[in-house]
Amino acid sequence: MLVFDGQHDHYLLIARGWQGEERIKENTIHVRLRDGKIWIEEDWTEDGVVTDFLQAAVPREDIVLAFHRPQLRQHTELAIA
User: Fold this and answer.
1) For residue range 13-72, what is the model confidence (pLDDT) as tens digits?
2) Chain Cα centroid distance, residue 75
3) Would you report the helix, strand and coil content of the chain in percent, each value rounded to 5?
4) Strand partners, 5
5) Which strand (E) or helix (H) includes residue 78?
6) pTM for the model
């Protein structure tokens, strides 16, 4: 399921359904736009949605890995905030 909240700039890909006897409901990707940057709140994809943004020529300084603590972000090649 795709969820687009353009008013608050939140965009989600949500997995819902059943796998055997187990109920599946998880946020696969959660991205929001904030202060002119792309904040990746959650990303459980195999290659990472960052790869897609970089291939689409989004500058590294415009992407924040929000799921990392601010102290850890400085060790990535992306924006810290």
Assistant:
1) 999 999 999 999 999 999 999 999 999 999 999 999 999 999 999 999 999 999 999 999
2) 18
3) 15, 45, 35
4) 10
5) none
6) 0.87
